[in-house]
Each structure stands twice: as structure tokens, then as C-alpha cells.
Amino acid sequence: EVLLKYMKELEEKNTGEDLYSRLSLREREVFKHLAEGFSIKDIAVKLNLSPKTIESHKCHIMGKLQATSLVELTKIAIKRNLIEV
């Protein structure tokens, strides 16, 4: 199962699929705030959602973008010109 997942990820990277396009509008909004350095709690207050909902979005975003840390998410956001350095 792990090998199949890895092979699928490699295939997606090789086909040039835009992983960002997998994100919903809400996930894109949360992604931008995370990349800007806002805390889960701050984002929850800003978007009038619960911190658990934001955590859930974060997990989905990281999975869809194949990121393992907030640093990787920030790098992706910078490459896409979603945030300024």
C-alpha cells in the first residue's frame, strides 16, 4: 500500500500535475494564512471557524500538496507568489 502511494506521487510529479489545483477555495484561504505565519487559533478567529476545523484543513492541505511541514507550505506559497518574502 505504501509503495503504491509512493508510485502514484511520483507519477503525479512527473506528469506536472498542479497539486495546488486540488485545494478547495477554503483550503486555499487557510493555506495562505498558514504560509503567512498565522496560528491555528488566529486563522480560526479570522475565518469564524473552530480551531479543529482549521487543523483539519491544514491536514488536508498538507496531504494534497505533499508537504511534511509548515516550512514546505511556505515555500510552495512563495513559489506561487501567494505571499511576499
Question: Which features characterize this protein?
Answer:
5 helices; mainly alpha; 85 residues
Walk me through the structure.
- The protein has 85 residues and is mostly helical.
- 68% of the residues lie in helices and 0% in strands.
- It is built from five helices and no strands.
- The chain has helices at 2-15, 25-35, 40-47, 51-65, 70-79.
- Helix 2 crosses helix 4 and helix 2 (25-35) packs across helix 5.
Summarize, please:
The protein has about 80 residues and is mainly α.
Helices, strands, pairings?
Layout: H1 2-15, H2 25-35, H3 40-47, H4 51-65, H5 70-79
Helix pairs in contact: 2-4, 2-5, 3-4
Structural class: mainly alpha
User: Taking all residues together, what is the mean pLDDT?
Assistant: 87
Largest sheet: none
Strand content: under 5%
Rounded to an integer, what's the Rg over CA atoms?
14 Å
Tally of DSSP helical segments: 5
Ends apart, CA distance between termini: 39 Å
The count of β-strands is 0
Q: Helicity range of the residues? A: 55-70%
- What sequence of helices (H) and strands (E) makes up the elements? HHHHH
Q: So what's the oligomer here? A: single chain
Low-confidence stretches: none
What would you call the shape? globular
